[in-house]
Amino acid sequence: MNPFSARTVLSRAQRAGLIVALVLIAVWAVLRPMAVLQTVVAVVTVAYGAAIVFRVVLVWAASRGEHLIRVTDEEARAIPDADLPVYTVLVPAYREPSVIGLLMSHLGALEYPKDRLEVILLLEEDDRETIEAASAVATEPHVRILVVPESQPKTKPKACNVGLEQATGEFVTIYDAEDIPDPLQLRRAVVALRRLGAEYVCLQAELGYFNVDQNRITRWFALEYATWFRSLLPGLVALRMPIPLGGTSNHFRARELRELGAWDPYNVTEDADLGIRLARSGLRVGVLHSITLEEANSDFINWIKQRSRWYKGYLMTWLVHLRAPRATIRQLGWRGLLCLNLFVGGTPLAALLNAVLWATTILWFLDRPPVMEEIFVPPFYYLGVLCLVFGNATVIYLNVLSARTMDRPDLLGTALLSPVYWAMMSLAGAKAAWQLIVKPSYWEKTTHGLHLPSSSKEAADVS
């Protein structure tokens, strides 16, 4: 039994503590309402400021580029085929008939001997369209279709666990159905993991997008991912902090992954949770300098679905790993605790709070109600102003910096328009908080293939 399972997000002790806290706050609010408001504002302001400083420190720590693991093309190709281990590639897909053909083409470009490569397509029992599309193109002997029996929860991590049970590879990785991995990525991972030794059990490759220029949303998404994988994650590595993994292109030693209990089928960001569990077990994760291209979400509604699921999973992971605070501190240390609170929990909470903070700022400039002068006592008022000015400017600067690291000066305008993207994040944060209460393990499906012309999608769907 996984002690960190999100099957029940809050433990009994957490639920009891929450109820007691809410009752005490309610009583206090009746007796001294202004004191409660002042305290809430103070706590939120300090936490928000700490989260901003934390990200600045991560970017600074990553700026030297020393903590990216690099394997040259020559080093990757130097290993004789006979010395390469069996490598399992898990591909969970649900309602993806339009991209299965492209997937086979992209995986076929991997420079890895077919007799040492195992590709397992994980398809849901009720998804006949994708099963039929995959059956038509998955004809090579190293590719097989594994139908995941109908059961709850119907999530990507559950499918991956089914695939891991039958995987024969020494190493295992996950690709999504629309991914275009670096052809040498598997070889690079083998070289890097052998070089690093047994302490490292996972490498996270960088994720980028092949449809950056499709529309404004994809441009924002590309800048965000560049910041995430080129600055924030390497910064966490540099500071010896836990690494919330991405959902694809993470490369594991299969034996250690099984010993850890693999993925939590009830957590909708099973990758982030697994990264924290690896750190709690004293195992290390590295960031591999190798890019997998994905499809950036180009549709507003589809984007909200995907982002709210990510935020919900981050909140899940945060709450689950705070069930036993003493054990968390003992296993993660103060650095890991900072990461868990300011990065894993702080990311969705900041998105959720942004809308409230912007609303109060607008109200102040429009009407200057006297009650707000009482709520924002001087020290926290000035700290709040600093967060408003310095914090927003910092995040915009990080996006500008990402445009530079991507060598895409044409994305400068998109970087400067980032506040509009933050408003989208706030909507996703609100939806995530609501779903965490009413349907925590519900996996909201993200539609892929939106970059394809309509004619291509129709042709793929009937193939």
From TrEMBL:
Transmembrane segments: 12-31, 37-61, 336-360, 380-400
One Pfam family it belongs to: Glyco_tranf_2_3
GO CC terms of this entry: membrane
GO MF: glycosyltransferase activity
Keywords, comma-separated and alphabetical: Glycosyltransferase, Membrane, Transferase, Transmembrane, Transmembrane helix
Top-rank taxon, per record: Bacteria
Membrane topology field: Multi-pass membrane protein
UniProt-annotated location(s): Membrane
Keyword Glycosyltransferase: yes
Record CDD domains: CESA_like_2 (cd06427)
Name the UniProt record assigns to this protein: Cellulose synthase/poly-beta-1,6-N-acetylglucosamine synthase-like glycosyltransferase
